[in-house]
Write a structure and sequence with these properties.
Helix content: 40-55%
Strand order of the largest sheet: 1-2-3
Oligomer: single chain
Number of domains: 3
Radius of gyration: 27 Å
Shape: elongated
């Protein structure tokens, strides 16, 4: 009887340790799966963004409404201002998602300062954090 009790106690202890290991392994697998899903979603968003950017570069400003019929009038006005170089001085808000490390979201305020060159279609934009002022903006 004493031998049987020792065997039962040993088996219960081994089972408990095995269950702890299985739970730890399952948690690691679930974390890995969620990271893979997040990475896949990020790649899909980036692909969609590049597709829209290519469409924007290829369309004429006068035909924006035909190419993007689902945009509201304010967005259409802002978009045409950006594409024609009249967006200098406008305030913007940018949300940065850190998908890789902390999965956190940071909101930056900004202002479009100027065009990079006379014939350039690239803007110089200064950004600042919620705790900073526009004078602290970094271009």
């Amino acid at each position: 009887m004493e031998k049987q009790d020792k065997l039962i106690q040993w088996s219960v202890g081994k089972g408990r340790n095995r269950r702890k290991l299985n739970r730890k392994k399952q948690k690691e697998v679930m974390t890995d799966m969620s990271n893979r899903v997040a990475t896949k979603q990020k790649k899909k968003r980036e692909k969609d963004t590049r597709r829209v950017e290519r469409r924007l570069c290829s369309v004429d400003v006068d035909k924006l409404a035909e190419e993007f019929p689902d945009l509201d009038s304010q967005t259409m006005t802002d978009l045409s201002d950006i594409l024609t170089g009249r967006a200098v001085g406008k305030s913007i808000c940018h949300v940065w998602y850190d998908d890789d490390d902390t999965r956190s979201k940071t909101v930056y305020s900004g202002q479009i300062d100027k065009l990079k060159g006379k014939k350039s279609d690239k803007y110089v934009v200064s950004y600042w954090d919620e705790k900073e002022t526009p004078d602290d903006g970094v271009a």
